[in-house]
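ok new one. same drill as before - structure tokens go in, u give me an amino acid for every spot. 284 of them this time. try not to just spam alanines like last time pls lmao
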């Protein structure tokens, strides 16, 4: 199907989802931009992880990306009547970005209810409390996806998970992770405690050095606000405190940097075991 007008209801919906958190909450949808991001999202829909509402593409984009991206997934991720060809001119009007890549998708929200049936009792989780920068959230989602966390939990005072800046910087990780948005940090700590998942507050000082801490168990690391860190009442609820040891005059790191370092350390032991090569090969 073809769309030529910026006044088409689906095009107007896409624009609203880009600009308005209220619209995203009202419709239970979010907007995805960028060729790779959209194609990755479509592929996850084909695999059954998420559900796509609408796809928009230009012939120019298909020609440009057909040999580098799995563009076929754009046509198999949803019903044929929900896939729309648009003109290059309309594609430029659908985004606030300076350079349109000619592919857009509307997706149903992907976060899950924060209840025991969706939690892996043997898993490792990232918890974000009052994180405000979209770039930091997107980076941490990508890192969590890369290291293989069981899920990411966000308190509802974090930046909107479906903010377009978060979606762009996460680069498809939103559709690959188990994500939870919870209205109260106490609810997070309580459920993890009931399931035997140890909560570890990331603090600037007076915590156990992450290189010496035992992450080899079901656990969660909690990262706080960029400027203020975790509220004392929240770090007090956690079972342990962990700290990144730093040299020189640096007192703290960017939240995304700190979270990335801690996540690497959480999983480093498991990777070491996974990639260990026997020193002796038995003769057969």
């Amino acid at each position: 199907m073809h769309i030529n007008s910026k006044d088409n209801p689906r095009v107007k919906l896409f624009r609203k989802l880009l600009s308005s958190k209220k619209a995203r909450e009202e419709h239970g949808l979010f907007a995805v931009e960028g060729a790779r991001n959209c194609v990755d999202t479509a592929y996850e829909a084909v695999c059954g992880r998420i559900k796509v509402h609408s796809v928009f593409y230009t012939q120019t984009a298909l020609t440009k990306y057909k040999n580098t991206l799995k563009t076929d997934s754009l046509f198999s991720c949803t019903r044929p009547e929900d896939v729309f060809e648009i003109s290059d001119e309309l594609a430029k009007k659908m985004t606030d970005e300076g350079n349109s890549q000619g592919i857009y998708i509307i997706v149903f929200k992907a976060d899950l209810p924060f209840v025991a049936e969706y939690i892996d009792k043997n898993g490792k989780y990232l918890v974000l409390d009052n994180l405000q920068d979209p770039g930091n959230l997107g980076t941490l989602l990508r890192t969590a996806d890369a290291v293989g966390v069981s899920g990411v939990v966000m308190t509802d005072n974090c930046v909107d998970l479906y903010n377009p800046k978060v979606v762009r910087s996460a680069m498809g990780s939103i559709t690959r992770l188990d994500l939870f948005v919870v209205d109260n940090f106490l609810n997070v700590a309580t459920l993890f405690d009931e399931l035997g998942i140890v909560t570890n507050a990331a603090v600037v000082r007076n915590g156990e050095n992450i290189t010496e801490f035992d992450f080899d168990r079901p656990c969660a690391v909690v990262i706080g606000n960029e400027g203020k860190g975790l509220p004392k009442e929240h770090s007090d609820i956690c079972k342990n405190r962990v700290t990144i040891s730093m040299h020189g005059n640096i007192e703290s790191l960017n939240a995304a940097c700190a979270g990335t370092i801690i996540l690497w350390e959480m999983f480093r032991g498991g990777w070491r075991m996974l990639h260990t090569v026997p020193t002796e090969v038995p003769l057969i």
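The longest strand covers residues 52-57. and btw The chain has a mean pLDDT of 92.
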